[in-house]
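Sharing a chain and its predicted structure for anyone who wants a worked example. Both blocks are below, sequence first, tokens second.
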Amino acid sequence: MVSKARADNRGRYRVLGPMMLVIAALSLVQILSGGIWRLFALQTTTPMRWNISYEDTNGRKVVSQIAAPAGDSFNEGVTASPVLVEMELSRCASFSSYRFWVGPYGPESAARLPGEWMLFVRGDEGDWVLADSERMKAPYRNDTWYTFPLRGHKGCIQHVRWDITKPWNGNIFRLFRFQLY
């Protein structure tokens, strides 16, 4: 004959076994979903150095090498010609899209972004290939990323050339962050 105390313990352990199985299954799901989330997270690459060239309103050639804008910082200039931005990546990689950010500084930020442009890419060597051409039809919104596909190139990219043929509004251009992914 089994004592009453021993029978109570057996009942308690029968419940503990399935509970442990449920806890283990939930933990496994949480670990796997965290791993899967990292696989699908947007992996962006930001060119760290920009070479910018354009002609100012006095007809002088302006050429500058800058660190890529980060956070809310930006690069701005007054131009009488198209703006050429060349960027080099630290390594050659494949990308399907690019994007740039419109800063938070009100209507003047949105009005000074690119209105028309062409984006060229190339690997470590070789000729520039037209990867995209855009003409914005609607005004930009502040604090927003604008994303575009790389249409004309499917290989390794290490150099990017952004030919901004026309700022959105007038002759002042402003550039915030730029990324490939």
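Comments welcome. Residues 35 and 131 are 32 Å apart (CA to CA).
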